[in-house]
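User: My collaborator sent over this chain with a note saying "see what the structure looks like." That's all I know about it. Can you take a look?
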Amino acid sequence: MEDLIKEVKELIKKYQKEDFEYGKPVDYLLFRTNTNKNDIEKEIINCKNLEFVEKQLRKNEIRYVLYFIYSRRKGRAYVLKFNSKIRIITIYPLGKKTLRKYRKKRFKK
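Assistant: Without extra context I'll predict from the sequence alone. Here is the result:
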């Protein structure tokens, strides 16, 4: 698990000079997460509250799900793909029950 976090941080450092690309309309993602575009990009670059990373293989591409946890009740998940840019496929908020589920998942491995 820890090596996935390091791997993602290295990929972000590599691609952070490029612009971000969004898989869904930006307005929808901002409304869903109740934040602004600059905060999202800063959070991904800084990785300050990054707790868990999951690697997914989908249709010959590698995706990373980054779980940022702010408290026991709040968190956010980002699904990223790295091409020539950092592509943010989707963002969704995490509630109390979902966080509990992912804590169990994190300690299984």
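A starting point for your reply to your collaborator: The first strand starts at residue 20 and ends at 22.
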